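Cross-check.
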Amino acid sequence: MDLSDIANATFESLCIGFTGLNLLAILRDKQVRGFSLITSLFFVTWTIWNVFYYASLRQPVSVWGTFAANVQYTNYIFLVFYYVWLERNNQQEVRMWRLFGQSMTLAVYLALGLLLARMGFTYHAGSAWPDALNGFFETGGGIFSLLNCKAILRDQELKGASLIAFCFYVLWGLWNLYYYPHLGQYLSWYGGILIVLVNSWYIYLILYFRVQKVRVSIKPVMD
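Predicted model, tokenized:
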């Protein structure tokens, strides 16, 4: 068994816990500030693609690691869009409808994820197109993450997501800079450089505005 598969699956499995921090944040804040809905939708599409991608690379442990992590992530993305819809339409939360929406979202993901995993495992390895498409997702992830930077510059605060989770995603991105060349996936590697750079800048912006907020809050006391 490839040790890189086990290491990558470990990152995928850790994502369950770190996405759990995002879940706690959105359930606590019940609003979205400082990150983009379009970017969130792009990333959930990417995570579903990973079920096929890892299977096509014959990385079975990573397949089931990402499959489990995506249960958590698709649940989180549903809540993000749900609370944005409530805020924009000035509606009160109805717990029954929220749970129904979460259940339906997970059911759709489980069906689609199992189908993609099956297709990936039966895929004839050796073609370059999975790397090309994954490279598109990596590059697109960097470009779409610029929308997160734009959002934090506009809102000057992060709500509905966890800073610690974003720090983990950057660490995971750094791991991918080793993982992709190890598998001969060089187009994915080029895109991976971009997403690490943009997400690192995004974390800097979050921290910058948090420091600015603290400075503003303590200034009147010092005066």
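The chain has a mean pLDDT of 92. The chain has one domain: 3-222. Passed to J.P. for a second look.
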